[in-house]
Amino acid sequence: MSPTQAEVDAARDDPKLANVLYHDWESATYDEKWSISFDERCTTFAVDRFRAVVPPGHVVPGTETYDHALELGCGTGFFLLNLMQGGIARRGTVTDLSPGMVEVATRNAANLGLDVEGRVADAETIPVPDASVDLVVGHAVLHHIPDLDQAFREILRVLKPGGRFVFAGEPTRLGDLYARKLGQATWWATTRFAPAAWLRPQAELDESSRAAALESVVDQHVFDPDRLEQLAHAAGAVDVRVVTEELAAAVFGWPVRTFEAAVPPEKLGMGWAMFAYRTWQRLSWLDARVLSRVVPRSLFYNALVTGVRAPDPVPL
Ligand SMILES: C[S@@+](CC[C@H](N)C(=O)[O-])C[C@H]1O[C@@H](n2cnc3c(N)ncnc32)[C@H](O)[C@@H]1O
Q: What are the strands of the beta sheet with 115-120, ordered from one edge?
């Protein structure tokens, strides 16, 4: 059920309450909204994100799998469940501040036959013993967490010595700026100039506007790549690495996603979906193979970060 105006007002100064309201509400339709699936397409996408930031050679396909992985801000389980299907981890714990999301993620895991338990949990106080997990992952979650220093300390605490964390899908400062501007311009143009028969019903558009009000509260941070590296180092991580990706793909993708939020899917059809996906794929290729070599990393839309809890010293 969508949040009422009174709930939206109450959450204006409380990012955690806003997160629970917003993501509980989104949980039922989240997979459809973001085209999330647990098949080869999304498994390849998740594993590629992991490999984009984990130094080459650290995880050799088929020869190294983490035993126990923990996901923070799991949503419906997109990242960890697909990483498990891609052979990165054997068993998992999915956690999220939103009970609705944890329910959907554990249901998705059960449907896939994966060994996963779900917990409602705040990334700033992870309810997991010290040094108990091999891998901590997250996708599009760090930018929602108010106290990131505390969250990174928690991540390092729960990791076993030598354990790794990998976070992907975090907006960069400049990427967020152009994505927002493009999204706002697309929404304005679509809702003004598209024929009424092409727009979603007014009640749905109003609901989207209420969601946008919560979105401005849940989105707490944007990242400079250097600052993200410093955050991880400050918590004690070693082997820290930050990479960025998606520039042309983001400039194309954000207007497309905004347009799709205003127009019902049946008006657009399969042809549109294939055009949008294939174009995004081609532009991602351009970003990875060409633009990443010549454009500064701060201009790309997504930041990914990895690091390791220092291994115990070998006794003499
Ligand atoms: C943008 S969604 C991403 C969901 C999922 N990781 C994905 O990529 O599809 C962010 C998720 O982080 C969760 N979240 C926000 N703040 C959190 C916090 N402090 N602790 C744990 N989860 C949080 C939200 O409830 C939401 O499910």
A: 115-120, 89-96, 66-71, 133-139, 159-171, 302-309, 237-245
Q: Is 25 in the pocket of ligand 1 (CB under 6 A)?
A: no
d(CA 51, CA 156): 21
pTM over 0.85: yes
Which of 55, 298, 17, 304 has its CA nearest to residue 146?
17
What pLDDT was estimated at residue 62? Answer: 55
Q: What is the mean pLDDT of each run of 10 residues along the chain (316 residues)?
A: 80 91 91 92 96 76 81 98 97 98 98 98 98 98 97 98 97 96 94 88 80 84 96 97 97 94 90 94 96 96 97 82
What tokens does 176 get? 């967020």
Assess if residue 123 is contained within a domain.
yes
Specify if 140 maps to a domain: yes
- Summarize the chain as % helix, strand, coil (round to 5): 55, 20, 25
86 SS3 class: coil
Query: Measured from the CA of 145, which atom of ligand 1 is nearest?
Result: 19
- Decide: 140 in ligand 1 pocket, CB within 6 A: yes
d(CA 83, CA 85): 5
Q: In DSSP terms, which residues pair with 171 in a beta bridge? A: 302
Number of domains in the chain: 1
Structural domain range at position 204? 5-309
The confidence score (pLDDT) of residue 57 equals 67
The CATH code of the domain that includes 197 is 3.40.50.150
Backbone torsions φ then ψ of 307, nearest 5 degrees: -170, 175
Q: Is residue 315 part of a domain?
A: no
* Residue nearest atom 4 in ligand 1 by C-alpha distance: 75
Q: What SS3 state is found at 138?
A: strand
Residue 314 belongs to some domain of the structure: no
Mutate to test the pocket of ligand 1, among 144, 158, 166, 215 (most ligand atoms within 8 A of CB): 144
CA of 30, closest atom in ligand 1: 9
H or E element that contains 100? helix 99-112
